[in-house]
Specification:
The complex is a heterodimer.
Chain A lengths: L53 H14 L27 H13 L2 E7 L4 E7 L2 E7 L3 H14 L3 H10 L5 H8 L7 H25 L4 H4 L18 H20 L5 H22 L4 H22 L7 E5 L8 H6 L6 E6 L6 H11 L6
Parallel strand pairs in A: 3-4
Antiparallel strand pairs in A: 1-2, 2-3, 4-5
Helix pairs in contact in A: 2-6, 4-9, 5-9, 6-8, 6-10, 6-12, 8-9, 8-10
Chain B lengths: L5 H4 L5 H7 L10 H5 L4 E7 L11 E3 L13 E7 L11 H16 L12 E7 L8 E2 L17 E7 L18 E6 L7 E2 L5 E4 H11 L3 H7 L20 H10 L14 E7 L14 H21 L7 E5 L13 H16 L3 E6 L9 E4 L8 E8 L7 E6 L9 E6 L10 E4 L13 E8 L2 E11 L3 E8 L15 E9 L12 E5 L16 E3 L42 E7 L4 E2 L7 E4 L5 E4 L5 E6 L7 E4 L6 E4 L2 H17 L22 H11 L2 E2 L8
Parallel strand pairs in B: 5-8, 6-10, 6-11, 7-10, 11-12, 12-24, 24-28, 28-31
Antiparallel strand pairs in B: 1-3, 1-4, 2-3, 7-9, 13-22, 14-21, 14-23, 15-20, 15-22, 16-17, 16-21, 18-19, 19-20, 24-25, 26-27, 29-30
Helix pairs in contact in B: 5-6, 7-10, 8-9
Classes of the chains: A alpha+beta, B alpha/beta.
């Protein structure tokens, strides 16, 4: 008879929820690490010890039985306490546990309100009570008009299929390519990226829920997307929010690294990548260009907030307002003429440095390439 | 019962025009711009007459023409604009265009060129899109934005293609200035005032300014240059693709990149480029593109003169690469396009001998798109062949059958039989005799509709093309219900039968009837959803009995079959004195399996002789049997792409030729002997002839280093 638990005693693989949704993509749970999952899946389960296979579990127990006679009897010796409520413990925790810490730090500051006035419906997001983003619901005529652009982009599907299908989840590999990152050297940077993606996705989902915009293929039967119609609203694009938040974060981090001799080129490519990930969703047929405008401007704002939470004092976190208008999306316009396209900078957001983000930031700073 | 309104269609001189522009026939399936009609402006070619004669009936606009001696070339590309109120109901569009053409042709009778053996005539081509129409066209104006290059040019490389990344860094000189002196985007969105009649022209200085303004964001640059616009179908998002046909070809011919280090183009080689409408390859008829192509050639020649003039020197050596073409046509140098190209080339070579137009031989060698019939093909007074038309073909399919020039086939007639299990309302048959009702200035011709279930599914025609060579043509609709039409063609093996009366003149030993089908696939992913039809020899049962095994390593058979690739040559490249480039596989030194070949015929005594245009040389079109295609640049600076086909063999040769020209060497300096017969082939006179028809006289060394 086994003394300890036997088979199945210690949790299942994947922590909360196991594998969710269709094929593990997009639900809560799943296995963390790089890519492949959206929503909370990026963290939950990451580094969770899970359980052993049945044979090993049984073998451990019979071995324990066989070794117990070598132990002394009597009480166990007392240990020392770990530091109380201290980030110095963070290294001990599995990354999914730290994920909960980042999430808590971030979400306790986020507020949102769905506002319905005589002339517009919108969502107002706040951070620590300061206005962060004000996103106005697009009208039905505008959505119908944007369907033309979505259909036009379908021409590029053959060109972009590999990108689109491998970017269904968080496209971290694509950012890794630009900064020469790998898991051995950049574990902390990846964790910070994941934290950013998860926060950005959370905020995007709040706005999507409130504004509840139908997907383009649900308006126009000619769009026929090449990937499943996502189970959330169209506006804003969470991919755009995440990609621009990550690009903003990594631009700050890579600059702080001071480790690239060709930093300017890499910063340009980070922006180019955020644009490409964003536009690829329109090519796929699941997003209007206005979704990209809303997502990209929200993502930049969130990236700045996270940099501030990390303690990056050079960053100014700016609040935005987006009133959708019938324009195609591209990064050049986002940089040079966003105000003509409906994006306004409405103020600055006061964001204090927080314990856990600044902890991981400090570690990520050591991931520098020092070329 | 379906019928075609006679007052409408008899104004169309040629079978392709009639098919493509007539609603009851092929128009619903035509190039979308034609299908959706009506259009206000059309491109066209005038032959043997003065375009100015048409003024008064329509507004005429002539593109920049190269006329060094101030004499008009025999064939003139032009655009006409019908100011008459547009009738927006499509039921009358054919009629309005037809009436317009009728008026034009009447007034042209007065403009007859005395030297011409043919009446003055014109062919209508594709419409011009509104967004590309220049409001204030200044043909003689000099674009003051062109900047004189720091280095005096010694040669010019020109490229006509689609999707051209004109601001790519591969085209910068050693000072960082663009070597792209002039670039005409024929489907570019027009500026208010321009030196081109439609589209957009960019000069070197404008390209440099765009590069300074947009820095590294080349997609933003092309967007700002109105070279990307998804709302304009002929322009579209092609420059957002990772690669285009044109990016690959332009890079190979004129770009400097680490791929091409053995043949670097110096600052003394300027570039002129013309971007055809990006969708030009969509239409499968081979019809409607000549004006764009010919005006592109004129533009290249004309702008080359301007460059030379700015330096106060005579015409510069010019190598023009044009990796484009179609499959069906006369193949004897006497079609409108062939005549026009030859005319231009001859005139410039008289002034500057180093003037070459380099074209690919085509990729249809193994596609069963060409057949030859001779006297032995006739049994019981008829010769038959199968035309296999594939299911799910969403475009029209076309077959052309050509008698020898000068042959009188008045006792011959052509018929079409549907695949087993389907039927026509009545047997369809057409005699090679002109319809007296079509007694006008066009070629002698006759038409008959192919009708099934009361609906028109095809058109058969005969015409004495340019009054010296009879052609039979069959055009059929798609094999699926598409474009909201309630008719379709049955897919399968259609039988084309050429019959003759007992007393008909037989073919002599040196005469053949030649058949080609038009290209009908979609290599550039333009979403035409065409499928390639092909020819199948009808063999008797004895031929199908088991035969002794053939050599497993010998590709070239001793006997040339009725359906074979010899003569399946790019029908535009058959112009005399163009340089025709076939493709070979670098690693094996073997001709690429698809590479188009010159014409061969088997004499009655079994020996083989050549006819028509032949391949001049081969250049690499495949890296190895397992790595098809060769590398060149993509659309954005730094991107790479592979392309398979003789399209990339031609610019490989053109690149070396222009380097030689700039260095004052013979243009073919450094080219090797023709490829050897592959070692596993057994030599014989027939095999040697077949080999030669594919490899030509010389071999270009590899240009692209990318494996």
């Amino acid at each position: 008879m086994a003394q300890y638990g036997g088979i199945g005693g210690i949790g299942g693989i994947g922590g909360i929820g196991g594998i969710g949704g269709i094929g593990g993509i997009g639900g809560i749970g799943g296995i963390g690490g790089i890519g492949g999952f959206t929503g909370l899946g990026g963290f939950l389960g990451a580094e969770d010890t899970g359980g052993y296979d049945g044979t090993t579990t049984y073998g451990l127990q019979t071995t324990a039985d066989g070794l117990q006679h070598l132990n002394s009897t009597g009480p166990a010796p007392a240990g020392t306490a770990l530091p109380f409520n201290d980030t110095s413990n963070n290294d001990r925790w599995a990354s999914w546990v730290r994920g909960s810490l980042y999430l808590s730090e971030f979400l306790t500051c986020i507020g949102y309100e769905a506002v319905k006035s005589a002339h517009e419906k919108s969502v107002r997001l706040t951070f620590g009570g300061d206005a962060l983003a004000h996103i106005v619901l697009p009208g039905n005529d505008l959505l119908a008009s944007q369907c033309t652009l979505v259909r036009n982009y379908a021409d590029l599907r053959a060109d972009r299929t590999a990108e689109i299908t491998s970017q269904l989840g968080f496209p971290t590999e694509y950012f890794a390519m630009i900064l020469g990152m790998h898991l051995g050297q950049h574990k902390n940077t990846f964790e910070l990226i994941t934290a950013t993606q998860v926060m950005a996705a959370h905020v995007a989902m709040i706005v999507k829920h409130a504004l509840a915009v139908r997907r383009p293929d649900q308006i126009d039967g000619r769009i026929l997307p090449m990937i499943p119609t996502p189970g959330h609203g169209s506006f804003p694009s969470a991919h755009a929010t995440e990609a621009y938040a990550v690009a903003t974060l990594l631009s700050g981090l890579a600059t702080e690294w001071g480790g690239f001799n060709d930093l300017d080129n890499r910063l340009a490519m980070l922006r180019g990548l955020a644009e490409r990930i964003t536009v690829n969703r329109t090519v796929a047929g699941v997003h209007y260009p206005i979704d990209s405008w809303a997502g990209a401007s929200l993502g930049v704002a969130l990236g700045q907030v996270i940099l501030k939470m990390c303690g990056h004092s050079a960053t100014v976190a700016q609040a935005i307002k987006y009133e959708p208008a019938d324009h195609d999306f591209n990064d050049y316009d986002l940089v040079h003429s966003a105000s003509d396209k409906g994006v306004q900078i409405t103020g600055t957001v006061n964001v204090p440095k927080t314990d856990h983000f600044s902890w991981i930031w400090k570690k990520a700073l050591k991931d520098t390439q020092s070329v | 019962m379906a019928h075609v309104e006679q007052h409408c269609i008899d104004r169309y001189a040629g079978p392709y025009e009639r098919w493509v522009f007539t609603k009851e026939l092929g128009r619903p399936y035509a190039f979308p711009l034609i299908a959706r009609g009506p259009s206000k402006r059309y491109t066209a070619l005038m032959e043997g007459g003065a375009v100015s004669a048409l003024n008064g009936v329509v507004n005429v606009r002539v593109p920049p023409l190269w006329e060094p001696d101030k004499t008009t070339r025999h064939i003139t590309p032009f655009v006409f604009e019908d100011d008459a109120p547009q009738n927006d109901t499509d039921a009358h569009e054919d009629t309005s265009l037809a009436r317009c053409l009728g008026s034009l042709r009447t007034c042209m009778a007065a403009s007859q060129d005395a030297a011409s053996t043919l009446p003055a005539r014109f062919r209508v081509n594709f419409p011009v899109v509104d967004e590309t129409w220049v409001q204030n066209y200044d043909p003689d104006g000099t674009n003051t934005s062109w900047s004189k290059p720091l280095t005096q040019p010694k040669a010019i490389i020109a490229v006509i293609d689609d999707g051209l990344p004109f601001a790519h860094r591969a085209f910068l000189d050693s000072h960082g200035h663009s070597r792209m002196s002039y670039c005409w985007l024929q489907s570019g969105i027009a500026a208010d005032t321009a030196n081109v009649p439609f589209g957009r022209e960019y000069t070197n200085a404008e390209i440099d300014q765009l590069r300074r303004t947009y820095g590294r964001d080349e997609t933003a640059l092309y967007r700002a240059a109105a070279a990307i616009d998804s709302g304009v179908s002929e322009l579209g998002d092609h420059l957002r693709r990772s690669a285009t046909h044109g990016s690959h070809i332009l890079g190979l011919a004129a770009g400097n990149d680490s791929l091409f280090l053995d043949h670097i183009l110096g600052d003394d080689i300027q570039i002129i480029a013309v971007q055809l409408p990006n969708t030009i390859a969509w239409d499968t008829s081979g019809f409607g593109k000549e004006m764009y192509m010919l005006s592109a050639m004129h533009y290249v020649f004309e702008r080359a003169s301007r460059i030379a003039c700015a330096f106060g020197i005579g015409e510069l050596p010019l190598i023009l690469n044009f990796s484009y073409g179609w499959s069906a046509g006369r193949h004897d140098g006497a079609s409108e396009m062939e005549i026009a190209v030859r005319d231009l080339l001859d005139a410039r070579q008289a002034i500057q001998p180093v003037t070459e137009i380099v074209m690919p031989t085509g990729n249809n060698f193994a596609s069963d798109m060409h057949a030859r019939m001779d006297e032995t093909s006739f049994h019981d007074h008829s010769a038959r062949i199968h035309w296999q038309i594939q299911p799910d073909d969403q475009t029209s399919s076309y077959l052309e059958l050509w008698f020898p020039a000068g042959f009188d086939p008045s006792d011959y007639h052509l018929s079409l039989t549907p695949p087993a299990g389907t039927s026509l309302d009545q047997p369809v048959d057409i005699a090679f005799v002109a319809d007296p009702a079509l007694d006008d200035d066009g070629d002698p011709r006759r038409f008959v509709e192919v009708i099934s279930g009361g609906k028109i599914i095809g058109q058969m025609s005969v015409d004495k093309h340019r009054r010296d060579r009879w052609r039979g043509m069959i055009a059929v609709i798609p094999t699926v219900y598409t474009r909201h039409q309630d008719r379709r063609l049955a897919s399968g093996a259609w039988t084309v039968t050429l019959s003759r009366s007992e007393n008909a003149m037989p073919l002599s030993d040196d005469q053949d009837i030649l058949i080609w089908v038009q290209r009908d696939d979609d290599p550039s992913d333009l979403k035409s959803n065409g499928r390639q039809s092909y020819l199948v020899e009808i063999q008797d049962a004895a031929v199908l009995l088991p035969k002794p095994p053939q050599s497993p390593v010998q590709d070239i058979p001793e006997n040339i079959a009725q359906v074979a690739g010899y003569g399946a040559l790019n029908a535009v490249a058959s112009t005399p004195s163009t340089t025709r480039v076939a493709g070979y596989t670098a690693q094996t030194g073997r001709i690429s399996p698809y590479s188009g070949a010159g014409g061969l015929r088997t004499r009655v005594d079994g020996t083989v002789e050549v006819w028509g245009a032949q391949a001049d040389l081969t250049a690499v079109s495949d890296h190895s049997p397992t790595l098809p295609g060769i590398s060149s640049i993509g659309v954005l600076s730094g991107a790479r792409a592979r392309l398979v086909g003789t399209s990339c063999a031609a610019p490989s040769a053109a690149r070396i030729m222009v380097c030689n020209a700039a260095a004052g060497r013979d243009v073919f300096d450094g080219f090797g002997d023709p490829l050897d017969l592959y070692r596993t082939e057994s030599s014989s006179p027939s095999v040697e002839s077949q080999h030669k028809a594919r490899v030509g006289h010389r071999t270009a060394p590899p240009v692209s280093k990318g494996g």
